[in-house]
Specification:
The protein has a single domain, classed as Alpha/Beta hydrolase fold, catalytic domain (Rossmann fold, 3-Layer(aba) Sandwich), CATH 3.40.50. 30% of the residues lie in helices and 18% in strands. Strand 5, helix 4 and strand 6 form a beta-alpha-beta unit.
Length: 208
């Protein structure tokens, strides 16, 4: 069985590996392997691009037959309508029959967990969240959801030096939890190591 990852990424040059498309035949159907990442609050395509570039490179190394795509939206955590708009955009655009892995950073991890059960045509294989405040339940209610155990693996990562989202907030119910020697954002911008560790962990836990 072919696994799928979904990650929202910034547009890349047409000759970039991030735009590769691979198709597989499964039960007579063409299956598209995707990677989609879900951005966090205060997303800036110029600042956040480096974080997602490193994530994309790390995940494509572990899942070489995948594609990687991003869509940026700048929002504050109290802007319910914008958060809902991003969630609906992901569902509308990517519920097209693939198997998916949703990768969310910060508040993007909450969006990923909230929408994961709502896919009707695509099959979510796994949700991965990094520095996401899952214990702040009111954020889930923006999306008419609750942080309840999901029928597929949820892998969460906390950052040891995170002063924005303390580690005790980052556990999702029933999740496989890990820690990174990083802060909330800057280490992800200047070092590939956190992204590499995350991608390797996901590859080890997600069946092919």
């Amino acid at each position: 069985m072919v696994g799928r990852i979904v990650v929202l990424m910034e547009p890349m040059p047409l000759n970039s590996a991030h735009w590769r498309y691979t198709f597989y035949m499964r039960k007579g159907k063409i299956v598209h392997l995707k990677i989609i990442g879900v951005v966090g609050m205060l997303d800036n395509p110029h600042v956040g691009a480096r974080l997602w570039q490193f994530m994309g490179e790390a995940f494509l190394h572990e899942f070489p037959d995948a594609t990687f795509t991003t869509e940026h939206l700048f929002y504050f955590p109290w802007q319910k309508s914008k958060i809902q708009r991003l969630a609906e955009k992901i569902l509308d655009k990517h519920d097209t029959g693939e198997e998916l892995i949703l990768l969310g950073h910060s508040l993007g991890g909450i969006i990923a967990c909230a929408i994961a059960p709502k896919f009707k045509h695509s099959k979510v294989k796994c949700v991965v969240t990094v520095s996401s405040p899952h214990k702040l339940h009111f954020l889930y209610r923006f999306l008419d959801a609750e942080p309840t155990q999901l029928p597929f693996p949820v892998i969460t990562f906390a950052d040891t030096f995170d002063t924005v989202v303390p580690s005790f907030l980052s556990r999702y119910p029933g999740s496989i939890h890990g820690s990174l020697l990083a802060d909330h954002l800057f280490w992800f911008l200047f070092s590939k190591r956190p992204s590499t560790i995350i991608a390797k962990k996901v590859r080890a836990l997600v069946p092919k």
